[in-house]
Amino acid sequence: MKRVVIESPYAGNYKLNETYAEFAMHDCLVNYNETPYASHLLYTRKNVLRDHIPADRKLGIEAGFYWRSVSEKTVFYVDLGMTKGMVLGEEDCKKQGKPYEIRELPADLWNKFLDVLENSGFEVIRAKKRKG
């Protein structure tokens, strides 16, 4: 198994973005035989760091960047776009000379993600479902 750092949106709609990151981790484990690390899911737990506090956010990003040095690559999941934090992550990959990959969830996981959102009360536009 390869050690990978996952980059996906976090700031903004935290609940939606946490759910998306969970699906990204599942994709790495099941479809790529990778061991994903998503610092934005770990460091933002209650009583760890607060993403809405600039100093905490900066510390969390820096700690996540440190893990990149022991990973084999970084995977950017971009179905929901690239955030400022993700752009910083891409710049860090280039600075460290670490390989990275841009990914989207496969159709089956994307559609499950939309189903979870819809069942959680989010308004989901069905036209965004993908054909597998």
Give a structural overview.
With 132 residues, the chain is of the alpha/beta class. It has one domain: Rossmann fold (3-Layer(aba) Sandwich). It contains five helices and four strands. The chain has helices spanning 14-32, 39-42, 54-68, 84-96, 107-119; strands spanning 2-7, 34-37, 73-77, 100-103. The chain has a four-stranded parallel sheet, with helices on both faces.
Task: Please supply descriptive tags for the structure shown above.
single chain; 132 residues; alpha/beta; Rossmann fold; four-stranded parallel beta sheet; 5 helices; 48% helix
Spell out the blueprint of helices and strands:
Elements lengths: L1 E6 L6 H19 L1 E4 L1 H4 L11 H15 L4 E5 L6 H13 L3 E4 L3 H13 L13
Parallel strand pairs: 1-2, 1-3, 3-4
Secondary structure tally, helices: 5
Strand content: 5-15%
The number of strands is: 4
Task: Provide the CATH top-level class.
Answer: Alpha Beta
* Overall radius of gyration: 15 Å
CATH architecture: 3-Layer(aba) Sandwich
Task: Provide the succession of SSEs.
Answer: EHEHHEHEH
Residue share in helix:
40-55%
Structural class of the secondary structure composition?
Answer: alpha/beta
Task: Describe this structure in a few short sentences.
Helices cover 48% and strands 14% of the residues. The protein is of the alpha/beta class and 132 residues long. It starts with a strand and ends in a 13-residue tail after the last helix.
